[in-house]
Structure formats: structure tokens, C-alpha cells
Amino acid sequence: MPFDPGPIVAAARAALPPAMWDHVTTGSWSEVTAREAAAAWQGLRFRPRVLRGVGEPVIEARLLGREVATPVGIAPTSLQRLAHPEGELAMAAGARDAGCVNVVSSNAGHRFAEIGARAGTWWLQLYLPPERSAALPVIEVARAAGAAALVLTVDTPEPGPKPRPDDEAWEGLDLSWFRCNFAEPGTLRWAGDLRPEDVGWLAEQSGLPVVVKGVLRGDDAHACVDAGAAAVWVSNHGGRQLDRAIPTALALPEVVEAVDRRAEVYVDGGISSGLDALAAWAMGADAVFLGRLPLFALAAGGRDGVAQLVRELTDDVVRVMRLAGARTLSDIGGDLLVGASESG
Known about the structure:
Blueprint: H1 6-15, H2 18-25, H3 32-42, E1 61-63, E2 66-68, E3 72-74, H4 87-98, E4 102-104, H5 112-118, E5 122-126, H6 136-144, E6 150-153, H7 196-206, E7 210-215, H8 218-226, E8 231-234, H9 248-259, E9 264-267, H10 274-283, E10 287-290, H11 292-324
Helix pairs in contact: 1-11, 4-5, 4-11, 8-9, 10-11
């Protein structure tokens, strides 16, 4: 059977508080971008190869210099303790069990030292505050706990307005742990004046590779790499920022072309099958990341649910590679997609 996320989503809906379900599933404004994500991937078509002696495909990859068992990673999400009592601890352990990269939100509800003790390869997602230096103590704590990279979110000068949930829906839910790694946990402030220089500053101050997340244009991707980004992450924030922003499946080729292999390229947004991942790699992505699905798996099954999700989707990727005639990720070129430039 092909991978089917339906049972995970249904179990999560039953387990999550209504406010949390709405928070996770809702897009901004009229939710056009959120609705279009999956369909954009499903609209792509393949030209599979035959007689290539594929045998058993090899899925292992190297991301930012580290070997991972699968290039299917976990994107950052906040409020994980509302999905499961162990929150980020269970997510980190499940990701480690599956051998994938786990990106931890800077809004995490557990201490980075605790998360790092449970984690395999993990990166810290970061919103820069108006006073840049205020982020440095948090970065240092994360680095000491084993964070291997920083993921700078650049598409959120302010949160996009959401139709759900309303403020009253959160009443009765304990959020005292939110952003517990900050000196002022309840204070949420985003820099509205991010510039390319911030990328280089972060890399210099932290000594860690910097991934820039939230890029949908080739010229922006070019500027990120010129500024010192180790990777560019194609993302529209799950349709939660500027509504009517293009789907990531449509943005990815332009970004890959602009980066021109000077940095790694990642993508998220509506990816829920091995077929979606195959299309992303055919366009030139180095890894795909899942946002809502791991959170649903966490709610439905805790640590084991997260690990099972990544393993099952990875198995689906292997199956798809075999059928497409690709033995390794490097065998997946643009010639596998109809209308794409020949590259494989």
C-alpha cells in the first residue's frame, strides 16, 4: 500500500485540543496558499526510466556535512507540548530513531539541553529580534546542547492574520512553558528590517552554518548565498504568512537555478508522499521537510509515531525511486519531470 497520512491526521484531530488543531491547520487570510500546496505537487508528471539496473535504492544523504539516514526531515513547529506531554523531547527522540534532521523551534517548550540529550542531528530555528544581540545567549545555549545549524526564518516580519482560532479558544490551556529558553519567555518580537547582512552576522557570531528559510524567489536566493548562507529553504510558511504566495513546488526550480549548487536547497509545503519528494529532488532539492505531519504524528503516537511517520514516508520514497529507475538521489535528475530541463 502507498503511504497514506489520513489515519495520522484523523488520530491527531481526535487528540489535539480544538484551539491547537485550528492553530496548526489554518492558513492566513482566505487560506488560498494553504489549500494549493498539495495540488501543486500532484500536478507534476514523471517520465520514468527503465533498464537501469536499479536494484535496491540508496536513500542515505549528507546535509550540511552530516550523514543522515534519510533526507526527509522535520520542519520546526511550536506548541508541541499541546500535541503531546513530552513535546519537543518526544519529537527529538523520534527523529533520532528515524535518523533524520529535526529542526527545533526557538519557541520550544522544553530546554535546549533536554532536547539535545534526546536528539540526533538537530538544528535551531530562529526569529531574529529587533535587537540582534538579544538572540546570542539563546544561540549559545542551543549550540552547547548540540545544535548543528541555525535556521533563520525570514518571511515573518509579523504574523499573517488567521481566521482561527480566536483568543478565547486558548482559555484553560497551560502555555507557561512557551519560549522557555528566553529570558523573557512571554515576549514575542520579530525584526521587521532583516537584511542579507544578518545572515553573515549570524554565521560569524555563532560559528554554525546558517540556513535561510522562507525563500520563494531566485533573486532572494542568490542574495542569501552571497551573504553566506549554507542552505536556502524554499517555504511559504505553510500558507500562514502572505496569502496567495506561490506554492513551493512552483518556486523551487527558480531557486535551485539561482543557487547554482553554491549551497544546499531544501523545500517544504504540502509534501506528503514519496511521489512529492521525488518531484522535489528531480527539481534539484537536497532535502524535503515535513511540517504539519510530524506534529500530527506526535499527537497521535508520541515518539514512536514520529519515527514511524518518517520511516514510512522514507520507505515510500524508496519504492518511488525504484519505479522511477533511480538507484541513488544523484540519479534523480530533471529529465524525470515532464517539461523540466534535462539534467540526469
